[in-house]
Amino acid sequence: MTYVLKRVGALAVVLLVSSFIVFAGMYLAPGSPEQFLVQGRTVSPEVLASIRVQYGLDDPFLLRYWNWLVGVVQGDFGRSLVTQQDVAALVGSRIPTTFWLVAYSAILIVVLGIGLGVLAATRTGVFEKVVVLGSNLGFAVPSFFAALILMSVFGSGLGWFPVSGAGDGFADRIWHLTLPAVALSFPAIAVVARITRTAVREEQGSEHVEMATARGVPGRLVLWRHTIRNSMLPVTTAVGTNIAGLLAAAFVIEYAFTLDGIGSLLVGSVQRKDFAVVQAIALIMVLAFGLINLIVDLLYAVIDPRVRLSKGAQAR
């Protein structure tokens, strides 16, 4: 429990520091909210002053940050400068699409990446060469190019999957998001498969695996209990890093497949200098990164309790 509380506390500190950087970064960027609102028109100083008063732009920076942070804690991210909508409602309506896309991609990474890596490590011959070749291809093909190929072949060509929209309902959403999820996860699957294959191969030659085999332990038990489990630490790191990276790469796929996720909303908000929306999405992405890293740390302790014990010893 102490280990979990320490990790949660570290996440809270990261979020606090990140929120300050996000808030400060937007106001250090070229342009200002009042310049955007007047759209280049010539207005009187009185109008500009009233805009600054309305949005609290004349307050000291730290006071503006504090007021914004208090609002964020209460779920109030302000209002969009473009649409005047509540930012929390605007972003909240886009989160489900991105969540489904990232979750679908994460499942593909775990199942295909780890599965293919384990099979490639335990089976030599043609299958291993195909996995290695596929992983090399995954390293070389960017997600956006993979999206174009998938849309051309399986969407426009064969007509098996739709190439736009997120769908309604569970089955329809899965059908619509299959091509985007495959395109988004393809490079990560290649990385995880390669790392899994290497980790399992190294573990197969370890002393405790050889001892278990020499004692007559059944091969399947040696594989699952001694080889695969003990090789999961580097694999877990690779999986966690690549799943976290999906959040940053999702906006490219959302743009290609015209999905109404937070990635496409972020791109449009940056172009229109919609500060409140950009700040909210940036903070949500930092929170998601932090939660994924927290889950990875907790999985370390589950896979190998020595990780937790060693960190506890260092703390003492």
Automatic annotation (TrEMBL):
Compartment(s) where it occurs, according to its Swiss-Prot or TrEMBL record: Cell membrane
Gene Ontology cellular-component annotations: plasma membrane
CDD domains xrefs: TM_PBP2
Family, as annotated: Belongs to the binding-protein-dependent transport system permease family.
Transmembrane feature ranges: 7-29, 99-119, 131-154, 174-193, 233-257, 277-303
Any one Gene Ontology BP term: transmembrane transport
Pfam families: BPD_transp_1, BPD_transp_1_N
Keywords from the named record: Cell membrane, Membrane, Transmembrane, Transmembrane helix, Transport
This protein's name: ABC transporter permease
Domain ABC transmembrane type-1 stretches: 95-296
Signal peptide (residue range): none
Membrane-topology descriptor: Multi-pass membrane protein
UniProt xrefs under InterPro entries: BPD_transp_1_N, MetI-like, MetI-like_sf
Principal location listed in the UniProt entry: membrane
PANTHER family: DIPEPTIDE TRANSPORT SYSTEM PERMEASE PROTEIN DPPB-RELATED (PTHR43163:SF6)
PROSITE patterns tied to this protein: ABC_TM1
Biological source species: Leucobacter weissii
